[in-house]
Design brief:
Rossmann fold; Hect, E3 ligase catalytic domain fold; 5-stranded mixed β-sheet; 3-stranded mixed β-sheet; 16 helices
Length: 497
Amino acid sequence: MTRAAIYARISQKDESFDKVESQLDRCQQFADREGYTVTRIFTDDGISAWSGKERPGFLDLLSAVTAEEIDVVVAVAQDRLSRNDTDWLALKVACQRSGALVHTIANGKVDSQDPSSVAMAGMLQVLADMESASKSQKIRARITTARAAGSPLWGRVPFGYSDRHTAHPEEGPLVTQAYADVLEGKTLYSIARRFNDAGHTTRTGKPFNGGAIRDILQRPRNARLVESYGVIQDGQEGDWEAIVDLPSWQSVNKILANPARRKSHGANTTFLLAGVARCGICGEVMRSASASKNGIKTAQYRCSSKTDQRENDGRRHTTARRDDLDTAVLSEVVRVFHEEYIKPDLQEVEHPSGAVAVYVKPRLPKDPNGPARDRIEVRLAEIREARANLLALAAMPGFDILATSRQAEQLQTEEAALIVERDAIAEADARSGVLAGIRDAMLSGVQVQDLAPSIDRALRALPIDKQRALVQSMFTVTVHHGKGAHRFEIAATARHS
């Protein structure tokens, strides 16, 4: 009895082959004709052999071949088994050790003990690799050609259009009117409400909101502009119908790009202490505002009980000049960094006369996340070296090919997790950016007593959201009545007290 194992696979995007169930039926009929007895069936439904994702069915197949539980592997075609060198090598080595054959309906029999048969299968594998690479290249070329010709790409038909070329008879005029509404000063919320009241939804079936309206109005294709990877192509015009004229599209997008139009006080992250500092009278957060005196406009932070136009409670709430409060808080951040992270080594040096002098030796500040980052980078280097060696090791006599395949999958998973962890540290930790600036200054020869300007520069070089996060993690800021910086109460949080 010749024991056969059937393997069937199809990726979610591959419509050129039968579904898994159909492949299994064809392989069973093929095995019956060849006189094979099917003892095992392995499947991977919806997983591409080219993607590098783990295929449990394929790994179980390797395990069965390695354990000499089967004599022949049956599949519809060789590229159902693999479309990359690593997987094909794993299967080939496993078959060479166990003596199993590979027999496919489309490509015939591969005898792992016959050099010419193995060579022919190797050429088929190269062709499969080339086909996958060629498909990707053709798709990229189609995209480039379509963009150059001004033709729309495939995908969901955008709101406002019946298809990729023709404006929708109801949605199109609605979008056109939305541009006119913005030019008349109407809000995106009011436009979204009108869309919803008319019974329309987004292409995903959700109600419209201001953000969805903004996305529609900022879409270049509405004015027949051709966009490629976020860049509007000069001199190109789409071959679809426009639903707004170019001057109106440009005017509306200029309005939408104006930060002053965003009137929500939710995040208010444009300024350092908006939504962070608090009024010393009522405890409410302070918002960005402006005041004019003698024709001179001054940027301020003002208690939100005033900026939100609530009912007057009879109390005189606090305000502060924005530059004054920002400078006071950032100066306090600089001071804390100087005291907390810059700690000189004090060394006693005995003079021949017997006197003892104290020598101050600068010490580079330690990055709290430095050890974690170093650990990640070292491990990533080890993983990449190990993955580079696996292919060569798999072909060595006596090497466990199944263990090799599983190890490769484990290394790939670990590498992806480490990269996510490393990026999260770099993105979230504002302290690391400031400390890096301090270390660079010290390494360039700046003395400890002269580091304050370097700390300030490193701090101000951070994005505003990182500055805000750093301040919030270190202090609570309260503004009282009075004059001068003494009315600013900058208190350390529990972490820094």
